[in-house]
């Protein structure tokens, strides 16, 4: 496994459950922390209450969205090198280009099928 500690930031409980289940299909050795709010996730990372080798963040969330989270995390010297993968239902090319300019490691459109999600996560995590 390339990543042992994974942080998922997503406010949709169904998407959280699918993500966790798909990750478990790949390996039970990955520690997954789920935080439904990007501002809280950033605070927990800054305070070292959560550690992450990779962060998956939804794009569309209330309060702080995925773009704002990306801009904020890159301001912290000890957090800016953690790969952030934007994981969203959006697939607009302008949005994808923008988040990559903001420092996203990768942009993944949430697949519609569970097996596609497993394949996508396997490619990213192993």
Q: Give the end-to-end Cα distance, rounded to a whole number of Å.
A: 5 Å
CATH topology-level name: Rossmann fold
Strands side by side in the biggest sheet: 2-1-3-4-5
Q: How many strand segments?
A: 5
Output mean pLDDT. 94
Shape: globular
Describe this structure in words.
This protein is 41% helix and 18% strand. By secondary structure, it is α/β, with parallel strands linked by helices. It has a single domain (5-125), classed as Response regulator (Rossmann fold, 3-Layer(aba) Sandwich). The protein has a five-stranded parallel beta sheet with strand order 2-1-3-4-5, sandwiched between helices. β4, α4 and β5 form a beta-alpha-beta unit. α1 packs across α5 (114-125). The longest helix has 14 residues, at 13-26.
Give short descriptive properties of this protein.
18% strand, five-stranded parallel sheet, Rossmann fold, single chain, globular, alpha/beta, 126 residues
């Amino acid at each position: 496994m390339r990543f042992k500690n994974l942080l998922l930031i997503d406010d949709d409980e169904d998407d959280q459950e699918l993500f966790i289940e798909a990750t478990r299909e790949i390996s039970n050795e990955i520690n997954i922390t789920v935080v439904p709010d990007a501002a809280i996730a950033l605070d927990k990372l800054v305070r070292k209450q959560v550690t992450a080798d990779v962060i998956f963040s939804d794009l569309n969330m209330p309060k702080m969205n995925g773009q704002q989270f990306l801009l904020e995390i890159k301001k912290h010297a000890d957090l800016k090198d953690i790969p952030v993968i934007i994981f969203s239902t959006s697939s607009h090319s302008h949005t994808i280009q923008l988040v990559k300019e903001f420092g996203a490691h990768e942009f993944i459109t949430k697949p519609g099928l569970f097996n596609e999600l497993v394949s996508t996560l396997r490619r990213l995590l192993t």
